[in-house]
Each structure stands twice: as structure tokens, then as C-alpha cells.
Amino acid sequence: MTGRRHPVSVSGAGWVVCSMAVLGLAGGLVFGWTELLVAGVFALAIAIGASLFLVGATRGRIAIEVLDRQVTAGTPATVAVRVSNDSGRRSRSQPAEFVVGGRVESIQLPAVAAGGSREVVVSVPTERRGVIQLGPVTIVRRDPIGLARRDSVRSGTAELFVHPATVGLSVSTTGLLRDLEGIPTADLTDSDMSFHALRPYVTGDDRRYIHWKSTAKTGAFLVRQFEQTRRSHLIVLQSLNPADYASDDEFELAISVVASIGVRAIADGTTVSVFAGEPRSARRRTGRRGTAAGTAAGTAAAAGIRGSAAVAGSGRLRVRTPRDLLDDLSATAEAPNAARLTAVARSVGESAPDASVVFVACGSTVTARQLRAAASHFATGVEVIAVVAEPEAEATLVRIDSLRITRVGYLDDLVRTLSRAVGA
């Protein structure tokens, strides 16, 4: 990438030296003061000498490569700054500045032989979940005494997705989703896969469904009747409104809950939809504009974290692969104007009427009454399991009618509480 040269920046000491050169030369020549003239010449010599260090073309290309594509919060990531020399001469080592999440890291680019390439490995701390902006890399030319510097931006930017922590869920945890023949409903049909009962034959019935053994015993034609089945569709949703969480730690734990359930469902091949906040269509109808992007943009200047297009655009996250989901969850953030949990459940219930199982993740400020109201927006027969994130709380399970409420204090509690919830 061709460097984009910035204007030379002069430090405070540099301006003092330039002023001394101008005033010393002018004052010495006008007033005939030899000492002042000598001082001016000396200051001018220093300024010219310093400027010579800023002269010269910067050769080669610099690229940023993220070596760790799957990074979990708390695990340091490794990023490589690769320097390539396309010229016919060996390039010398030179200092550079590398922007990492809003911070400027000083690095030393190595000397590179003609036609070769070398890299500098940088360790990036990842204390919290988020999307860290990497780059650009700026080559810095400065004089030894710090009077001036010249910057040349030599690379583009890259993103490092720091995924939320997840826990591996057992097969039994998602057992209620694993019936490949579908989930039986209360609707009866003449042809399906879930056998219900026998009934007398009527004209027009398909003879393939005549139960011949029962017909032989009773002397009258009997046909099989089935329960209509539907394909398993798992919904995972959470609110982005800070009022639904007592602290940032609760929100982070809820994010990890959503990530763990979603990743397991994707790995199992289950039809799954994950919502962070209201679907986009619902926001258009209500005129609500709160999204994850608002908060993410507000923190970008300080932490180099931004919201993804998927989160900010629709509230429905990508679930094609586990990595897609984790990348979107990395950029998910609280938004003060976002819908509360009950409103999110209503919108999701309208946009996904074929849901068979719904997981609701929220914080401890959401009451049981609010959870029941959220569950009421889904069709009768839909399994609703609410996971309340409350760090360091004791893991519990409560069943209220068709709603199961689990409380987790640690992410590891999710395995045990969901196993109990599925069996309850």
C-alpha cells in the first residue's frame, strides 16, 4: 500500500529552535549583535540538521494479519505486521506506530532484504468481549533530539473479534430439539409420521393407511390417524436494554448464555434463530431506533470497539456457522433506547410464529411476571425456558405453568440447570 504522507509535525522544542534561528539572525543583522547572530546561526544549523532526518522515501508494503481467528475474552491474541520489500535494495529497520483498539503501540519494523518479507508479532490483550480495531501502521521519521517528526501511513486496518466465553452443553441439554421426525402438535391429520389412534374408514381415505390387523379383528375397516408434526425451530433472544440488567457483568453472562446455546444448536444442525433486541421490521413499525450500534459507536473512541452491521441492522444475528454467531455477539452492546424484554419477545413471536422452543436470556432485574408476559407472546405448546443471569447467585430452577425459569450465577451452571429444565 502506498504511504499517505502527513504534514510534518513540529514539537514545542522545535518551534523554540526555529524562533531562535529567525530572531537571532534578524536581530544580529539589524542590530549588529554578534552573539545574537551566532545563536541564530547555531539554531538554524540545528533545525536544518533535524530536517535532514525527515527526508527520504519509505519503500515496501505493510499488511496486518490476524493470526488467531477464534479468540475468547481473556485469551491474548496474536497479530502479525508483515513488511514486504519490493525494491531492489535492502530496506533498513525503522520505528513505527501500530494502533490497537484506540491505543498506540510502538513497534520496530525489521530490515528486509530486497524482494523479501519479514513480520513483527504483536500480542493484543483481550480482557473483554468486543471487536478491536487494528491499524493503521504508521512509519515515523523523527530527529534524534525530538524537534520534529514525519508520519507516513503504510497499511490498512483489520478487525479482531473477541468472542464471548462459552460452555459446552451436553446432548441431553438440547434433547427436546433432537426429534428428527418433528414435534407432534394437537392438530390431527390423515397422513404424517406421529401415530395417534385408529378411526373408522370413510370414503376417500387412502387405503395405504388401513390397519389390517385391527380390521380383521373388528370386521370393519379402520385407518390410522396421525398427529400433525412441525419442524423444530429454536429461538434464542435477549434484550439490549440496560434496565433488564443490574450490572455489566450480568449482560456479559447473558451474552455467554446466548452464545453457548446458539453454538450448540448450530453444531446439532437445528433450525435456530438468535435475536439481540427487536427484529428490524418491528423497529420500523414502532419507530424505535435503539440499536447496539449506538452504544458500540460511543465506546469506539475509547476502546476501539464497534457494532457489526448484523447487530445494528436487524437484531437478528447470523447463524450460518458458530463463528458467524460469535462474531456478531462480539459486537453486541447495550443500548439505552432499545426495547425491553417483553417487547422483544412480542416482536420475535410475530416474526417467528413457527417457534417450537424459546430460550430467553436476561438479567436479575426482570421479574417472574415480566417473564410470564414475555412467554405469553408465543403460541400455546411452545416450550419457553428463561435463563436469568445473576453472577455468583445460586443456581435454581422454577417452573410456572409452561414457563421454566433457571437462574445461573456462573456460566458452568448452565449445563446443570438446562439439563434439569429439559427433564422437568
Automatic annotation (TrEMBL):
Pfam families: DUF58. InterPro entries: DUF58. It comes from the Bacteria. Residues 198-333 form the DUF58 domain. The keyword Membrane applies. Keywords: Membrane, Transmembrane, Transmembrane helix. The chain crosses the membrane at residues 12-31, 37-57. This is DUF58 domain-containing protein.
